[in-house]
């Protein structure tokens, strides 16, 4: 699939490059500006000062990170780009210890759209902004269950991987709750990505790398160009193409090894492994633009936006074949492996039904003269898979966003900003090497089982006015405004074969095996909107004491209205030492995607057997039949306190404690459905399709309350080595500890909504301690060096009734950048995890049977060492 579309993507890259390079030249020509623009600063991406004034968490102009009342981290693009990964998710996690991500293979769409956690909270409790404007979510709702870790279960968040690092001027990470300032989702904090605003120059980057194992080859090429737009305006465009191959770090499954010994490993998927544990194949195009056009001295028009077209491909669990002694065939191919598992009357009833439909029984069952019915429960498609089959799962993701507005300042010093935005994320799932077992030999082997869209629109009006007064030491910064948002989640039915219930569906299963397609009953458009107004005040009460107060009222169509507030303060005892503190409330409204997702997929049980799992909307017949009630918004109360010490211009130290209490957290309630149980009968009575085959049913509920607390330490020292150049020592440490305070019970029972295993994962699966130590040395000999150490504390996971404990690890990154051609050409040679460290081996008996060599919950993955070479040319 990826290779077939490579020509299309390459053509798109060339077209985008042409427009990037030619359009600015054309704009300059028509405006009759000088043909030779001023040269861009050398290595302009690295020139961003770590002390640049921040715009996140405050609406006062001129605050530096150490002057803010809340902790804000500022990261340069060079920190992001001097890494082996082409994924912004990995890049940010490698330099921000409070930000964590994991790799989830064989986990449906979660293998492609990776969730990330700020302060150990779910991905959708962090608000993501681009140039200060809310970024739209991915269409993926994370539904992963065991064995893929459940820390992020149920979240629907932004896809960080669609943001190319070449488009970024800097990243600001606000580690503080800010719902009163920004609205829903800002419980853990805010990540604000500021785009390039250079008005001249062109930069071309190319990077290639691989793992020490020789797989996972990664190509990345990017182009960034800037041009003047009007008098003092700019237009900046970035286009990035990437191509990453899969990795494989598993071992052969026990049953796959037995099949390979009997029929040959060449007939067993993935060269005898059965299934692959590792990164997926990926390829795509990512682009951003950023522009501003001054109309006069007081009014400007602006706009920015993005477009991405990416494809990914991974695999599912291995399905065993028919006819291998000692290996039980997959139930989609054969149900009565001993010839007696299905009673002859059942087989005869199926034959009668098939004949009554005017169909040929030989297309759905296998003739057997020894059976009284003349047939056996053997799917006649089985000869296509002498070594078994492993469904290949992929996704094509297209994404766009546009934000356009006007801003200015009146004669009375009132700054204003009005804007409109629209963003959409569209995912089309694809599956090959699979079957719809209910269609017998007539089943196709490729499907399009899902078509999901997340569409968001919004309008903002923001105002800031410095209220001059004689009461306080400085004017009161009065910020106020209003926001309207609308989210629409669209589900389109998959192709018919992906969801069709064929003549033998009750025997072999329904729909595309591994990931059942969305049926017409599941399709629809589901929307909700919100309206909000806010007031944000900030001033210096006296010369050294700053106070901020914010309040926000928000009304959401599907939920109760809410009022959230925030109080912040900072007191400077001296020019070098200050203390700061905040207390605030927050909220997050469940998304239309979470409320309306209908998904039937396959998971493994504690014996390694594959069982169908259905996730249903909370208002569906299936959920209501099992006792579901409407969900409410999540709410939080958090506070933080810390100090800032900056004794001179070259050293700064900040230490902040935080505590976040979240109530009514959204969780997937999973109910086991045994054959013949009251739960199964309730589903049958409700008319749920395929109810006889479902063994687990999930739906969203308000499941539990939790508290996360921790300490963040940031120390930066800038050294002058005289004739040996300069250096920056950067040390960051985050301690985060989550505790589940209470768990709701399933109505009418004493069974908790989330079991002890998920509670243990929430509390222990992410490391409590993480450190990042970075040293950047800029020498006077046209060569710069970067060394980084990442520390990951020990962690635990609880899967299939077994608790695994994994030790701490240090990972080391090194890179050297050489400058040529008057500093226009830069060549970087580097490596991530240069000592090739791996997590401890997996100890879970079920996972090792399934071929997992390393823990799937590893916070730094399990690819081992990676190297890369990068060249950048700018003119």
Automatic annotation (TrEMBL):
Superkingdom of origin organism: Bacteria
SUPFAM superfamilies noted in UniProt: Porins (SSF56935)
Keywords, in A-Z order: Cell outer membrane, Membrane, Receptor, Signal, TonB box
Cellular component terms per the entry's GO annotation: cell outer membrane
Residue intervals of the TonB-dependent receptor plug domain: 67-190
TM region(s), chain numbering: none
Residue intervals of the TonB-dependent receptor-like beta-barrel domain: 360-834
Primary localisation category: membrane
Coiled coil (UniProt feature): none
Localization: Cell outer membrane
UniProt keyword annotation of Disulfide bond present: no
Signal sequence region: 1-27
Homology family: Belongs to the TonB-dependent receptor family.
PANTHER family found in the cross-reference section: PTHR47234, SECRETIN_TONB SHORT N-TERMINAL DOMAIN-CONTAINING PROTEIN
Protein name: TonB-dependent receptor
Taxonomic source organism: Lysobacter soli
């Amino acid at each position: 699939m990826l290779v077939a579309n490579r020509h299309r993507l390459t053509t798109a890259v060339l077209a985008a490059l042409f427009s990037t390079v030619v359009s600015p030249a054309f704009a300059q020509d028509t405006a009759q500006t000088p043909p030779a623009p001023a040269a861009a600063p050398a290595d302009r991406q690295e020139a961003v000062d770590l002390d640049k004034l921040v715009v996140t968490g405050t609406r006062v102009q001129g605050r530096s990170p150490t002057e803010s009342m809340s902790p804000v981290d500022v990261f340069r693009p060079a920190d992001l780009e001097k890494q082996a990964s082409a994924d912004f998710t990995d890049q940010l996690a490698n330099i921000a210890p409070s930000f964590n991500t994991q790799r989830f293979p064989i986990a449906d769409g979660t293998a492609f759209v990776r969730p990330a956690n700020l302060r150990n909270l779910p991905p959708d409790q962090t608000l993501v902004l681009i140039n200060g404007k809310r970024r739209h979510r991915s269409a993926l709702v994370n539904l992963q269950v065991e064995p893929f870790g459940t820390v992020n279960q149920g979240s629907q968040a932004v896809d960080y991987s669609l943001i190319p690092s070449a488009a970024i001027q800097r990243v600001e990470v606000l580690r503080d709750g800010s719902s009163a300032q920004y609205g829903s989702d800002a419980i853990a904090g805010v990540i604000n990505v500021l785009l390039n605003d250079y008005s001249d120059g062109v930069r071309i980057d190319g990077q290639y790398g691989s793992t020490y194992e020789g797989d996972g080859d990664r190509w990345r090429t990017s182009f960034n160009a800037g041009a003047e737009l009007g008098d003092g305006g700019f237009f900046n465009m970035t286009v990035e193409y990437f191509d990453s191959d899969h990795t494989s770090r598993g071992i052969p499954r026990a049953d796959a090894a037995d099949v390979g010994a009997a029929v040959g490993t060449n007939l067993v998927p993935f060269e005898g492994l059965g299934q692959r544990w590792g990164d997926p194949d990926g390829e795509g195009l990512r682009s951003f633009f950023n522009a501003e056009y001054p109309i006069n001295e007081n009014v400007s028009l602006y706009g920015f936006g993005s477009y991405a077209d990416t494809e990914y491909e991974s695999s599912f669990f291995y399905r065993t074949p028919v006819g291998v002694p000692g290996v039980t065939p997959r139930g989609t191919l054969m149900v009565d492996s001993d010839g007696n598992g299905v009673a002859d009357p059942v087989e005869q009833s199926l034959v009668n039904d098939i004949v009554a439909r005017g169909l040929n029984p030989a297309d759905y069952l296998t003739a057997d003269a020894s059976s009284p019915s003349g047939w056996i429960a053997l799917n006649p498609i089985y000869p296509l898979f002498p070594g078994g089959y492993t469904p290949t799962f992929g996704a094509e993701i297209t994404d766009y966003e546009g934000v356009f507005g006007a801003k200015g300042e009146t004669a009375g010093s009132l700054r204003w900003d009005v804007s409109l935005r629209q963003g959409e994320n569209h995912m089309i799932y694809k599956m090959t090497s699979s079957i719809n077992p209910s269609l017998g030999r007539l089943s196709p082997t490729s499907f399009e089982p899902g078509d999901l869209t997340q569409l968001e629109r919004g309008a903002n009006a923001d105002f800031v006015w410095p209220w001059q007064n004689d009461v306080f030491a400085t004017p009161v910064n009065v910020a106020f405004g209003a926001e309207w948002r609308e989210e629409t989640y669209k589900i389109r039915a998959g192709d018919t074969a992906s969801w069709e219930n064929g003549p033998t569906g009750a025997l072999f299963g329904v729909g595309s095996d591994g990931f059942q397609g969305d049926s017409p009953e599941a399709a629809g458009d589901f929307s909700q909107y919100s309206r909000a107004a806010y007031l944000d005040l900030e001033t210096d009460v006296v010369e050294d004491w700053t106070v901020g107060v914010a309040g926000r009222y928000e009304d959401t169509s599907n939920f109760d209205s809410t009022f959230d507030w925030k109080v912040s303060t900072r007191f400077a005892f001296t020019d070098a030492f200050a203390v700061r503190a905040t207390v605030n409330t927050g909220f997050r409204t469940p998304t239309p995607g979470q409320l309306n997702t209908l998904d039937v997929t396959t998971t493994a049980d504690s014996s390694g057997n594959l069982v169908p799992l259905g996730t249903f909307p909370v208002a569906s017949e299936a959920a209501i039949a099992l006792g579901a009630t409407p969900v409410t918004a999540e709410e939080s109360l958090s506070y933080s306190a810390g100090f800032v010490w900056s004794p001179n211009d070259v050293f700064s130290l900040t230490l902040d404690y935080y505590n976040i209490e979240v109530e009514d957290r959204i969780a997937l309630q999973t109910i086991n459905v045994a054959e013949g149980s009251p739960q199964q009968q309730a589903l049958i009575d409700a008319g749920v399709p395929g109810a006889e085959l479902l063994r687990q049913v999930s739906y969203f509920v308000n499941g539990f309350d939790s508290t996360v607390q921790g300490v963040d330490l940031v120390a930066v020292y800038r050294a002058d080595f005289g004739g040996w150049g300069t250096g920056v020592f950067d040390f960051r440490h985050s301690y985060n500890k989550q505790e589940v305070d209470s768990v709701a019970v399933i109505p009418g029972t004493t069974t908790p909504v989330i079991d002890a295993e998920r509670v243990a994962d929430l509390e222990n699966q992410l490391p409590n301690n993480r450190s990042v130590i970075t040293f950047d040395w800029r020498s006077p000999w046209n060569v710069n060096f970067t060394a980084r150490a990442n520390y990951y504390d020990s962690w635990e996971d609880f899967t299939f009734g077994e608790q695994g404990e994994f030790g701490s690890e240090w990972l080391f990154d090194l890179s050297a950048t050489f400058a040529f051609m008057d500093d226009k050409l830069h060549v970087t040679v580097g490596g991530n995890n240069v000592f090739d460290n791996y997590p401890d081996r997996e100890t879970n008996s079920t996972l090792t049977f399934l071929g997992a060599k390393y823990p799937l919950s590893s916070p730094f993955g399990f690819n081992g060492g990676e190297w890369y070479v990068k060249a950048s040319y700018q003119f």
